[in-house]
Amino acid sequence: MIMPVVLCDADNTLWDTDAVFADAQRALLENIESMIGAQCDRPDRLDFVRQYDQALALIHHLHLRYPPHLLVLALTEGLNGKSPETAAIQIVSGISQAGPISLEAAEELGSLFQERLKVIPRLLPGVRDGLRLALQKDVPIYMLTEGRIDKQKRIIESHKLSENFRAVLEMTKSLQQYERLRSRFLPAEVVVLGDQLDRDIDPARAAGCTTVYVPGRFTPSWNLSKGSQHASYQAENFEDAMIWIINRVVPYFKSSRVADT
Question: What is the pTM of this model?
Fold first, then answer.
């Protein structure tokens, strides 16, 4: 029996990166407000920040990995009345240079923002149990990340989960990369598990992989109009996803799971 190989996303699939970002984004907005003497009048302050964040990501060539000082500048424009789209275009194109905050101050606030993102995120529900089940059934799990390997390894070690992953693979999540990984693990079935339709599910499905969608707590605007019907399975959480994966090759897994626990 050949067990499937699981390629698992990390952020917002295994641990709650969204909560870390939310805290950092709220703090960033407060710092900008104090610096320029303007206040956000929106009832949902986090949504205000994320509208400008997503507007920048949509047009910047680094997508969500754009330099954080650009968000500072965009939010400054937003607090002065400019829409997310207008602010993003002006900031990315370099049109908006003079304003109530200097580039140096923006870079300093951007650095503080990045420091707050170094907080170790908590595990999401079902992750520890799901990883334990995979280990019991000898299902190999490889973590996929578009971030830095050392950061993800630090989180893994902090949660004492090193034995649960065969390796951490850093890659740009594209059709070509998923095709390469699928070829690498043949003849095993390759299952890609993640929370983002555009980065985890769609390209992996196009590459011939089985896909498991675990919806995150935050969905970027560019994914809101997408349905999850193209995923092989939509799971409630990581444990539910792992049970479904194992059931594909172990028909009586549920009964054996009872015996194991």
Answer: 0.85
